[in-house]
Amino acid sequence: MLRAPSLSRFKTPFLSSPLKLPPSTSSFSQKFHQTHRSPNSYPCVRAVDLDQNTVIAITVGVFSVAIGVGIPIFYETQIDNAAKRDNTQPCFPCTGTGAQKCRFCMGTGSVTVELGGDEKEVSRCINCDGAGALTCTTCQGSGIQPRYLDRREFKDDD
């Protein structure tokens, strides 16, 4: 029959050896201590000795968690504060007009094509439909510079 090893056989720095009771003269006292353990005889867990590397690792871990939580909170508060302020900055590409000059016709509304033999054909620009200007793609024609996240259109491609 196998018996469980006694605690005194385990060699670990985390467990202290159970307290030894002084020998008693009465047989009742010996039987009581053999069948019932006093709370002081249970093994106790000792404090772990921390070296410098362990302390640094714990500090870096706590700091990383703080940064991982703090940065999103910071950006959320900045977005909320920006939404409360009025945006009056003029759009940079169109200088606040809401329209940009057509790149194909250079704002004339017509395109000249050289056919050869000094022949030229003038036709209406197909890009701007002869208007000479297109709606600004940055501000969508409002003339106000949009905030960073407002510049993007998030489309569901499903």
From TrEMBL:
GO annotation, biological process: photosystem II repair
Gene Ontology cellular component terms for the protein in this record: chloroplast
Annotated transmembrane regions: 55-75
DNA-binding among keywords: no
GO molecular function: protein disulfide isomerase activity
Pfam families per UniProt: DUF5351
Keywords annotated in UniProt: Membrane, Transmembrane, Transmembrane helix
PANTHER family attached to this UniProt entry: PLASTID TRANSCRIPTIONALLY ACTIVE PROTEIN (PTHR15852), PROTEIN DISULFIDE-ISOMERASE LQY1, CHLOROPLASTIC (PTHR15852:SF27)
Protein name per its UniProtKB record: Protein SPA, chloroplastic
